Records
---
Amino acid sequence: GENVEQHPSTLSVQEGDSAVIKCTYSDSASNYFPWYKQELGKGPQLIIDIRSNVGEKKDQRIAVTLNKTAKHFSLHITETQPEDSAVYFCAASKDSGYALNFGKGTSLLVTP
Amino acid sequence: NAGVTQTPKFQVLKTGQSMTLQCAQDMNHEYMSWYRQDPGMGLRLIHYSVGAGITDQGEVPNGYNVSRSTTEDFPLRLLSAAPSQTSVYFCASSRDGEAFFGQGTRLTVV
């Protein structure tokens, strides 16, 4: 089955700096790559996603890049703020987002 | 708009007991799924449904049953609880691939 690796497991940055989280996947048939943010005691919430026919997508301070050849994708958060502190999960799916295979998560801490 | 509602939020079971985790959505989504989240493991798919009357197994289905009699509801049944099923359980409903998660049920089996 699909195997999604996520790095780093923890990340600490100062407010205003950028944060980058990287994921690799194993199944070349995967075609949908979402990123979820999970705050303490809550369910994951979609923050951005990308499909395999696109190389990059941006939404304000958040961007995702996809390299299909290398089978990796990354989340970039610029101008980080303390409210960005949370656990971030990447996922991959080969049925356009229905059965998701998640990475193990990155705990991001943004210090003022 | 409630989205995805899970009940209960917390539950403690004794080994061997059975129970049902409830999940309801009001977004008229065809696709629903159950995940479990364990420390350092991310979320793992237990069962999913692509519509009423249709269910299938995910990555970790053993010890769990599901049914989908309506579009709105997708309950998860633990047949005989084991300590290994101690986890946080999330239900999700999806449209166009985007999954909306409930707030989770924290289950402890002693």
---
Amino acid sequence: TQLLEQSPQFLSIQEGENLTVYCNSSSVFSSLQWYRQEPGEGPVLLVTVVTGGEVKKLKRLTFQFGDARKDSSLHITAAQPGDTGLYLCAGGGQNSGGSNYKLTFGKGTLLTVNP
Amino acid sequence: DADVTQTPRNRITKTGKRIMLECSQTKGHDRMYWYRQDPGLGLRLIYYSFDVKDINKGEISDGYSVSRQAQAKFSLSLESAIPNQTALYFCATSALPGQAGRVTDTQYFGPGTRLTVL
């Protein structure tokens, strides 16, 4: 069973601060995704990374996939109240034939950005 | 209109009752999933279906059953609800991955059903 550990579990910061959340595993994933979930809604995809060492930027959000494809980080610069939500990482795995692909989700980091 | 819809959005029921949660999608995706979300436990996969004739158990399928009535519809049933099935339930869909070996699988989630079993 592939497991993803996210840290911290909870994070409360002031508007304008920077933060990093982590997603770690002992397993190798073919891809790593980050989702954000707001109260009363389902998760929404932010980014997918597929290459070890890959870095993707989405405005103030920077995502990195570890060289060994076992871990990932999400860095937010100058956080805003609108960034508040549950951030979930999800690792993509498959069997050798590639036909049984599905995601394994971490437990999430609940971020609160206070005005 | 939303691409993935779930009904009902909220449901309160009693122990032992049979409950059905329904999911419909207009995205034309072949793959559909049912997850439950509990505080501190994240999203856990209950069942998934890669096409109408292919249904698979996820990591926590005991006490649940599913039916894929059509490409666009995937329902989850609790045959005899118990209190520890109180949770937020999400349906999700995805398209077939484009290429083996470098597959990615964006999942599109419905708004969720909050189920309380008393």
---
Amino acid sequence: EPEVTQTPSHQVTQMGQEVILRCVPISNHLYFYWYRQILGQKVEFLVSFYNNEISEKSEIFDDQFSVERPDGSNFTLKIRSTKLEDSAMYFCASFSGPQETQYFGPGTRLLVL
Amino acid sequence: SQQGEEDPQALSIQEGENATMNCSYKTSINNLQWYRQNSGRGLVHLILIRSNEREKHSGRLRVTLDTSKKSSSLLITASRAADTASYFCATDIWNTDKLIFGTGTRLQVFP
């Protein structure tokens, strides 16, 4: 069964460093999302991406964040200058069309020291 | 209060018992989805129920949706120790496709 994959599974970085989280969505999906979950808290929407542009973003998704689909398969989330509070599990999700099931990747656990 | 609140926050049962988790939300939705998360792991999709559906089954899972009360329930029948996890409802709100997650129910099933 097709699945969303994410790399790396864990990343430790120093405050102020740039990180890039990578996702490979399900191949025939057109809509891509990033969510995050701070330890012990609920999953929060960050950004949605469709047709090579951001379709919606949350207030969390400030100028330090960016997304890109550099080729036909990868979808990346970049955090330019990480802060301690960026420590969280980051999930990528994809789905084929509006109102369909969103499939989530296994997540990248980011720890900012 | 928030879109997507589950109750109870935590539930402990014995293997073989049924587990019921409830979710309430505030705004109009396209659909409601239930996910499972093992501790520190990814989100596994369980079931999607659309706003025009009232009940849906998948194996030992039964989901109901009452749009007049803006609530949903997830029933796991004949629970197993392997069902131990956190369960989240997520609403796909009308006019947007982002999911709004609830606070989750932590289910512990004792063998």
---
Amino acid sequence: SQTIHQWPATLVQPVGSPLSLECTVEGTSNPNLYWYRQAAGRGLQLLFYSVGIGQISSEVPQNLSASRPQDRQFILSSKKLLLSDSGFYLCAWSEQLTAEAFFGQGTRLTVV
Amino acid sequence: SQQGEEDPQALSIQEGENATMNCSYKTSINNLQWYRQNSGRGLVHLILIRSNEREKHSGRLRVTLDTSKKSSSLLITASRAADTASYFCATVGGYNKLIFGAGTRLAVHP
């Protein structure tokens, strides 16, 4: 069966520090991969998605970047965090055809 | 930008009552999906309805889709306290991109 791992679960980082959140998927090949951000009590904002290794599409210009170094690994990064980067970050994957998405448990990032 | 918009933003009901949540979207879709999120957790897929379907059932869930009105509804029958969560609709466009609405926060009181 397929599983998705996202870590860490919580993170407190100072302004100006770098960020690296990692997400890995097991049990499937060539998944679509997504990074979403959710502000408190709000919906999900799509940040990045990838349909293959090395292919990244950005939805919203911002202080973040994403990379897909391996088929089932998706990384969200920042060189210098801003206060506005605080939020709940969710990684997800979907199969190419059905588009039903499976989510990780999320990372709560607090920038102080 | 958000594709789906849920209505109402919040809903408070008693156990045993039915809960209805609505979703409107703006562009053509391949399918529409509903997800549930418990507080502070990831989202869980509930049901998917394709653009050529009008109604779909799964246990106590009933989803309808009206593509002419660009709207969908999720009905939870005989609600339970464990149904307390946020519910999101999501539309699927190119590259299977899921675009989510702002969600409906459902509170079911014992």
